[in-house]
Amino acid sequence: MVTTRQNSRARGELAPQMAHLDDEADYALDIGPLDTSFKHILTQGRLHGALAHRLGVDILRGVHPCGETLPNEIESSSTLDISRSAYREAIRILAAKGMVESRPKTGTRVTERARWNLLDPDVLRWMFEAEPSEAFILGLFELRLITEPAAAALAAQRRSDAHLVAMDEALKIMAAETLATEAGRQADLDFHDALMRATGNEALASLSSSIGAAVAWSTRYKQRVKALERDPVPDHRAVYEAIARGDTSDAHWCMESLVRLALRDTQRSMSLK
Hints:
Blueprint: H1 4-11, H2 47-61, H3 73-80, H4 84-96, E1 100-103, E2 107-110, H5 121-130, H6 134-158, H7 161-177, H8 182-198, H9 202-205, H10 208-222, H11 233-245, H12 248-272
Antiparallel strand pairs: 1-2
Helix pairs in contact: 1-12, 2-4, 2-5, 3-4, 5-10, 6-8, 6-11, 6-12, 7-8, 7-11, 8-10, 10-12, 11-12
């Protein structure tokens, strides 16, 4: 379990300016501007999904800045060697995430950033591929600090035996596989998802996919240069044990410590880049 001294040090690390980031993360997909063909990414999913992914990353990278009108449907279909229906569906996907809007006669325009659904799991994934700003990463950790400690306290009051079993199983996999593996990272997501569901609060539980995406991509991000030096499983185990005891205060404190230590790990990884 984390100590009071560790928690005190971690609390002081949220405020300072985060380490400078270079233009591109080492792990990020170097997909560049729009290609002239999407045939090579069909294996990633249906064509319209692959096109939405590519356009989304380009928008986040600034290839298509806010206010820019995208090429029209006919031009894009010809240039990209795709069907008009696939292009329309890709635009619908981006519009649903608030990133573009289409109007008669004026075409499809990239919207202002304030309208983007930054907590959409796809947008979060694209954000980390495009290289997130230090302010954005800090914002994600601030969101986690607002929601997850409170969720842990509620879970300590309302959890069922099934929730405890789910969290315990996830912890066992995390310990065996580590967060360096896909299985370990998935178990980490399962732990946080079970905790959010254990709150018995539908509004909080609805944030599970967004919180999970933030956890998943920040975990990958901080390991892009080197493996984690600190094992985070004991921090998760401390949260679980507090919830199992029904200790709301300790559950809140342990989860806050977990998130702040994760922030510290991320800041350290930035200084290595």
